[in-house]
Amino acid sequence: MTSALSYAVWALLGLATLALWARSRAAESSPARPAVVLERLASGPFLRVALVLAWGWAGWHLFAR
Amino acid sequence: MGPTAERAGGRHQDRATGARIALVAAGVAYALFAASTTAFTRSANIVTAVPIVALVVLVVWRWPLRARPLKLDPEEAPHPWRAWVVLFGAIVLWELADYAARGSRADHPTLSSMLDAVDRYFVLKAFVFFLWLSLGAAIVRRGRGRRLGAQQPRRAPSEAP
Lengths: 65, 161
What we know:
By secondary structure, chain A is an all-alpha fold. Chain A has 3 helices and no strands. By secondary structure, chain B is mainly α. Chain B has a domain at 3-67 and 110-146. Chain B is built from 5 helices and no strands. At the A-B interface, helix 1, helix 2 and helix 3 of A face helix 2, helix 3, helix 4 and helix 5 of B.
């Protein structure tokens, strides 16, 4: 039961990500496109450091550890 | 534009396309090689460390020293980041809730435990590794400050060239 709930929430979050991605591609959309979000993160003085660290940590955690 | 300029532009575009195809092919080959390694081994450490070191070198080399945060036109996009921040916050909250919950990881899966399950399959692991490499390449590209092509951000009027 608990695992079903957990997987259901993950599935909902995945669907929400896809929906937001699709909505951001509409011509008159308010949410920024993922590429623009990435550019915003990569152009902030502190966010860009956090972005590089997060990317490196994610790779190390997933593939090396 | 004259025919000479058109030919030069076409050659430049061909070279850019060729370079992109070569980069993708190299990324696929590297991801397939990386997928053949096993976590907690020296080979996995090295194959993961190489792109991390390469990205750090590239951002130090290619990114401008002084960052200029991207600002969008508030009239065209009143809240461009809000939905993404909310979604990211929800994912982080659920990840922490699952991580801290009592019980087995199977009952409370985290993102990394689900990806561990995916990594048991060679092709899927190669695909995830390729996605990670692609994200790294996109980070380097977006941080250079070059303007987006088809995804031109809506800049504030005061920042218009």
